[in-house]
What does this fold into?
Amino acid sequence: MEAQQPTAVWFRTHLSLGEVSALFDTPVDDWDGENHWEWVDLDFADIGITISRTHTVPPEQTETRIARRGHPTWEYEFPQDALRQIVAALQRAGIDPIHTGKVECPQGNDLIFTVHEKITAPAPPPGR
It folds into this structure.
């Protein structure tokens, strides 16, 4: 059954995973990596989240993903309030655009991104 609420948030940034996790102003529960992926687990907005991406290319050249903690992470929907708080924390840091939707990993390290919403910063008023 197709998820109605997003199961992932993703974006591109030059920030390290440590810098991204610091945007949520909460202690990190776990920080680890392997041959392809690196990830940080923490609690935010009353849920556990995992922030992850590949470390095989520079950070700004790949998607940084936030999903609810669990296995597999792409199956768990975000509560609306938690999603709003995650997006707000990213926007305060100037991260733009931010995508919400669904991320699937059918095999290996290949990801399929299905966008539900692309969130962009509002344009400045004319004359500024």
